[in-house]
Amino acid sequence: MRRGPSSKSVIRAALLLGCALCLPAAAPPLTFIPVQPKFAAGTSDYEAIWRTDGARIVRALEATSGLEFPQVPIDVIVSDGRPMASYDGRLIRLRASYSPAYKKATLVHELGHRLSFVLGRRDGLDDHRLLYLFLYDAWSDLYGRDYAEQMSRIERRLPGEYDAAWTWALSQTREERQARLRALRENRP
User: Fold this and answer.
1) Going by DSSP bridges, is the β-strand pair 30-34/74-79 parallel, antiparallel, or unpaired?
2) How far is CA 52 from CA 46, 55, 57, 104, 121, in A?
3) CA angle (129, 161, 142) in 5-degree steps
4) I want to staple 5 with a disulfide (CB 3.0 to 4.6 A). Which of 9, 136, 149, 166 is the partner?
5) pTM of the full predicted structure?
6) Cβ distance 82 to 95 under 8 Å?
């Protein structure tokens, strides 16, 4: 008579599967490219942030958004242009002249946009309202609440929809933001 797996092997398999499901996806491959030689130092700063904090950044963004990064290479262009992420997620532009603390914040911000593109525009949320459902929490988890407060205050001063988007997002508790994200993930097309 053939016997089934022992209870120990079933438990072991369940634990291994559970651990595998809890692990975040690997960090997307990033290539940092200075637009001109004068941006090489800024590019090196971003590369150092990625080397030091890249895995933590990915874990924080994935944990707070409930999403996983697509394993698509991302070119990170460093210049003095306005930071942005292309809608296909294959290109991010970062500003070379930011302070070290704001370079971290900007890298996390633009990677957060890349991650939020997985959801698309939903429920009338613009790009920043969607991003701000998890960016503050990711910054807090990475570098502490004081850091998140400081960076959100800086972003509120940027021209455009930033102040209104931060006001909207931070009028909700972390749990309320998480509930909204959960609903968006569950109702993906």
Assistant:
1) parallel
2) 10, 8, 10, 11, 32
3) 50
4) 9
5) 0.85
6) yes
